[in-house]
Amino acid sequence: MAALQEKRSSEERKHKSVQNGAETSQGQWGRAWEVDWFSLASILFLLMFAPLIVYYFIMSCDQYQCSLINPLVDLLMGNTHLSDIWNKTPTLTYKAAGIYILWVTFQVILYVFIPDFCHKFLPGYVGGIQEGAVTPAGVVNKYEINGLQAWIITHVIWFANACYFHCFSPTIIFDNWIPLLWCANILGYVVSTFAMIKGYFFPSNAKDCKFTGNFFYDYMMGIEFNPRIGKWFDFKLFFNGRPGIVAWTLINLSYAAKQQELHGKVTNSMILVNVLQGIYVLDFFWNESWYLKTIDICHDHFGWYLGWGDCVWLPYLYTLQGLYLVYHPVQLGTANAVGILILGLAGYYIFRVTNHQKDLFRRTNGNCKIWGKKPEYIECSYTSVDGTKYYSKLMTSGFWGWARHFNYTGDLMGSLAYCLTFAGFKALQRMQPQRADSTMDKGETNRKDTQISHT
Hints:
By secondary structure, the chain is mainly α. Helix content is 57%, strand content 9%.
């Protein structure tokens, strides 16, 4: 009920007044107190079309060999109808539901009940109990940083099963990919709805809640800043990192296993995707304690944007390169493969060093060296909603002297490298895709017609 009182008092913030004779901004770093028409229109668009976008990409691969144009052409030419496409889409199955429930439950157990031990023997790794940034209400949350440990345990079990125990097929994720999509959507909507209800009636900290009075904006962007259950289960840290990012590398491994099953080999392009994206995932978990100081944790509230996005958007769209290579296996020439590897590693280097420079500068308050010299910076100030004036330093040395957020350049280089694995050069040698209806799914997703003829 304290949150409802906080909601009523939000109106009073509009009249927070002046300091030094100037009216303070009604805004604040993070999500808004009020919603303009453009923000509302954008949010309604995302709520309506983001799930359809994910479905369209996955359906295109399932029924049209990853062609994004052919479904539209078929619809416009009258060759097929939306009902035909929908009827050929695999439905939710008990098997997929069981797999997904087991997966999420396993990640919850690894997150909540197994304290981190990796920081005790891995030099340079920061794990265990760490403090986050100060929230707007002045709270400093503590987190159990054990993502790297969860990733290692999960993948050890995966490889042990693939090599020795054979309890399930390594292709299990691909074989149930669309039924698992429905499970991921259900979880995304359930956790987002629960987070909104929790924000209204039993928030973890009522003073860190934000209400605009607009249902769609509050549902999308979230009400609670750090929703938690108990002392350690933090919604933002769990859903941002687990189960989606831990699954990222498993999904790619399942794609590689399916390519081996269908075509008798794993191409070097598939290996590149697994290696380059695997480095990115490992970087995330190695630096999970640093992640506590990023925008996702420090400024975003937890709503549909993070809840559904982490459950569906991330695992289903970030892994499209590997999915495409299952249907269109590409064997790169040596020079092309090496070039893509260098591009991806260079992008990762820029991404990592740029982030490290900013983190080092903040931790030492500028008392450090960037590229062998004391960093340069500019002094900035800003005034918060309550009229308090704050000061900050913006570094202008290193990569941050070249451009603001040069880490995004590294990110883009990495993304380009992923895509070049199958579409970057005229000299690509493409293996003939097989029509393998009998082996494609082994009946696990009830897919009766892959419509390869549409390619």
